[in-house]
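Treating backbone geometry as a discrete language has practical consequences that deserve illustration. No coordinates are needed to read the tokens, only the vocabulary itself. For completeness, the protein is quoted in full, as a sequence line and a line of structure tokens:
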Amino acid sequence: MSVQTSLARALGESDRASDIVEFSTVVVTRDKQLRNVDHSMFQQKAEAEFRSKVLPSFEEIRAGGSWC
């Protein structure tokens, strides 16, 4: 599998994650797999996904919403 294919799969998995647990699992697993190839790009894209998808959920909970 090529580096670009591995990176594309990892980014696709993080994009499809439906909650913080799934997102975290993808990031940790793929981070280890991509460590020696395109690690920095994966980390940057995962950070962007975290900011756009996960942080808003935390802000909603903090404002009095529920975890469900």
